[in-house]
Amino acid sequence: MSLDPQVAARLKRNADGLVPAIVQQYDTGEVLMLAWMDDEALHRTLTTGRGTYWSRSRGSYWVKGDTSGHVQHVKSVALDCDGDTLLLQVDQVGAACHTGDRTCFDADRLALS
Predict the structure, then answer these.
(1) What's the half-sphere exposure (Cβ side, CA atoms, 13 Å) at 81?
(2) What are the residues whose beta carbons fall under 8 Å from the beta carbon of 55, sequence distance 6 or more?
(3) Is residue 103 pLDDT above 90, yes or no?
(4) Backbone angles phi, psi at 14, to 5 degrees
(5) Is the separation of the CB atoms in 74 and 45 below 8 Å?
(6) What is the reported pTM?
(7) According to the 3-state scheme, what is the secondary structure of 82-110?
(8) Helix runs in the chain, H state only
(9) Nearest Cα residue to 18 out of 48, 55, 44
(10) What pLDDT does residue 109 have?
(11) E strands within 26-113?
(12) Which of 12, 28, 49, 67 could be bridged to 83 by S-S, CB 3.0 to 4.6 A?
């Protein structure tokens, strides 16, 4: 099986064939992380209900939580109006960040002028 052709036709991918995926806690709105998906990662996410992404550094797919136990149960997936970004609303079990932080945006807040 592959990604629904109607969905695939709406995606605007970067030069590497990837679309950014913003991941948000479904019930609080907390932004957890940003990851990358290609058509296969999106198809796997939609069919399994688990956050599946393309790792640019490893050059392979990864399912969030398979090694850490910090699973993402996907509640919804939305495509933005331009077709170039995905929003996943998930129920995050444990930390979303590989550093062990709840979100990937906890550690380095920048000062506003």
Answers:
(1) 0
(2) 36, 61, 62
(3) yes
(4) -80, -175
(5) yes
(6) 0.92
(7) CCCCEEEEEEECCCCCCCCCCCCCCCCCC
(8) 5-10, 39-48
(9) 55
(10) 82
(11) 31-37, 52-55, 60-63, 72-79, 86-92
(12) 12
